[in-house]
Design brief:
This protein is about 65% helix and about 0% strand. With about 220 residues, it is an all-alpha fold.
Length: about 220
């Protein structure tokens, strides 16, 4: 669990600048660039269990949501599009089935199935694996952004969870539990959903990390 005292300290810092949390007018300017509700609506509309009936369309919708995401890098978007275009019908169906399995069935099997297909083109990246589930279930799932995750684990001195570039279901579930437990400890205005809560942690831990680099402590 994240240290409550440190979490409250970050909360205080954030609320000084944005007194209404994510409802603050200044913060609304930022959140407009990240339309979580709109992306969630898209995910619910296009990734229902029945989406498996049209593999090609579902794969195209995977490409669309990733191309529209503000949280996926401009380098990864065209690579994912190329992947969808080069996959044969069997592998494309396996990717679609794995996504739907993750969203509606056995999450671990779906996660590892997606990872297997993405790895074929060296695209088994945390961001691509976790973005659609994070949009589909923003109250429960988490988007793994490596820099943010490493800053959070370092700031809170978490030693029993070790981040690795290669995705794993074990790390994902432990980190997800960590975030969902911490979310319950802060003011509701800081946690309307998991992407927002992680955004709060990203902004505050990044600021702290930058300050520590500016004013290093002599040992």
């Amino acid at each position: 669990m994240l240290d409550k005292a440190k979490l409250k300290q970050l909360q205080g810092t954030f609320l000084i600048q944005y007194p209404q949390g994510f409802d603050d007018p200044q913060m609304q300017v930022i959140t407009k660039k990240h339309p979580i509700a709109k992306m969630t609506d898209f995910a619910h509309q296009h990734f229902s269990p029945s989406a498996s009936g049209n593999v090609h369309l579902c794969a195209q919708n995977m490409q669309k949501i990733i191309s529209r995401s503000s949280m996926i890098s401009m380098f990864e978007k065209p690579k994912f599009k190329s992947l969808i275009n080069v996959l044969n019908e069997y592998d494309k169906a396996y990717l679609v089935d794995s996504l739907l399995e993750y969203l509606h069935g056995n999450q671990q099997r779906g996660f590892e199935g997606m990872m297997q297909i993405l790895a074929m083109e060296n695209l088994a990246k945390w961001s691509l694996l976790t973005i659609i589930p994070a949009y589909f279930s923003p109250q429960d799932e988490v988007f793994i952004k490596p820099t943010t995750v490493k800053n959070i684990l370092k700031h809170f001195e978490i030693t029993d969870i070790t981040y690795k570039p290669t995705p794993s279901w074990e790390f994902y579930t432990r980190y997800r539990d960590l975030i969902n437990e911490a979310k319950a400890q802060v003011h509701p205005s800081l946690s309307p959903n998991n992407p927002a809560f992680c955004g709060f942690l990203m902004m505050t831990t990044k600021e702290t990390a930058n300050k520590s680099q500016m004013f290093p402590v002599d040992n």
